[in-house]
Amino acid sequence: MESILQLGAGELAARIAGGELSSREVVGAFIARIESVNGAVNAVVTPLFEQAMQQALAADEAQQRGEPLGLLHGAPITIKDSFHVAGAPHSVGLTHQTRRLAEQDGSIVATLRRAGAIIVGKTNVSQLMLFHETDNPAYGRTNNPWDLARTPGGSSGGEAAILAAGGSPLGIGGDMGGSIRTPCHFCGVHGIKPTSRRFAKSGAVVCLRGMESIQYQPGPMARRVADLELALRVLSQPVGPPDAEMPPLPPPIAADCNVAAMRIGYWTNDGFHSPTAAIQQVVRDAADILRAQGATVFETAPPDVEQAMRVYFGLVSADGGDSLRRLLAGSEVDVRVRKLLKLASMPSAARKVAGPLLRAFGKRRVARLLEWAAPLSAAGYWRMEYERQQMTDQFVARLHAERLDAILCPPHALPAFPHGESVEAMSAASYSFLPNLLGVPAGVVAARTVEVAAIPHSSDDRNSTKPADATTTLPLGVQVLAPHWRDDSVLAVMAALESAFEEQPEYPLHTLVG
What we know:
By secondary structure, this protein is of the alpha/beta class. It has helices spanning 2-5, 9-17, 23-41, 49-64, 107-114, 157-164, 181-187, 225-235, 277-292, 305-316, 322-328, 335-345, 348-360, 364-372, 378-401, 430-438, 487-501, and strands at residues 44-47, 76-80, 118-123, 135-136, 140-141, 170-175, 190-193, 217-222, 263-266, 296-299, 406-409, 442-453, 471-481. The protein has 17 helices and 13 strands. Helix 3 packs antiparallel against helix 4 (49-64), helix 6 (157-164) runs parallel beside helix 7 (181-187) and helix 13 packs antiparallel against helix 14 (364-372).
């Protein structure tokens, strides 16, 4: 069974098409794996096992009849809770929405099904997809399979957790502020946020309605970089009528890029939140790998990230949280969501008092967030959006001036952190927020594992046997950025790094965790 679980989605589809494996055999193996690990990680919150086995039988019959087969024929995949899957809920952690079922597949899901993919389940998210943990009152907390006392990240944390645990070879997440990339970094898998607006978000729940400045972008997550490219190839030919948001672009092809001919910049510290030493080192190691492969690699300076974070949080909180409160009406509210909404709607007079108090108690980063995440007037919003456009234009000009084909940097300043710390650790995610603000494609490639100090476990934790002074093994990733619409460059660099990192014993994907 483990050999099947270690195969990528594309290879599984090829072996099913060639008759070496049956879809029933493959889908059954992944369902069995989900059943064995899900009690601990709580990643798959809507199992679709019975339907999946029926579809696997139909896939095998189609193969036996010699029918034309799709690129993902018979291969199991998982889908983030926010995407519409016919007959399944898409609650995004809202307790009053768990029994509201989608009447039909959304465009992303329909496109994957047409390619032959079989959906075995939907995966957990943070409530309203608002924070870098995966927890909500509807389905509970998802645990990181590397250490159950830590988060897998969010909001696509359920996807990353089940991929890392070997319960799925390929998943679909969504990213508005690192929601694909942070979980991939925390769980040791691969993922890509395509260029903003490359893929339409129709058929998915989008919580910040009207927020067009910073797009929620669907994207794939996988145990193989080649499967990311395969998924983007599939999604580039969507089912249904044309979408005005989605440009008619060909799929990104990594093989068309020569990494040895690239000019690649990197930074290890954005000057806003310093990463751990191990994360900075893995970025330098990635730079050395690409340099050894012939690329021209040099250290470069990040943009003004403090300005970027001020603009990002100013835009996403411009309505003071009103749209989120409407969605929450009738639902239990997660404590982190409550905290974020309180920050977003605090009157200006209270902010002037609270900011200095927070700084006095050593909470400088929360104080900055409080200052930035404030309601805006229409004129204030327009000024903020103009500032975002200026930052984007400056970044594009910089890429052109330095002739940069790609950039390496940390995905996050921290490895997977303990449950409950996402609001306090929000500034550490500056590395993942930046590509969303600028709209550039960005991927995270799994790199290695490191030993870090374990945290004490409460008496009611599932793995409370680990002493407080022990160490725990956690994965680290490297983030790859590229100019707008050069998703192919991101994939090519990720593939080059994958081929080198997987030769090392500390590579996270050598084993199934959990």
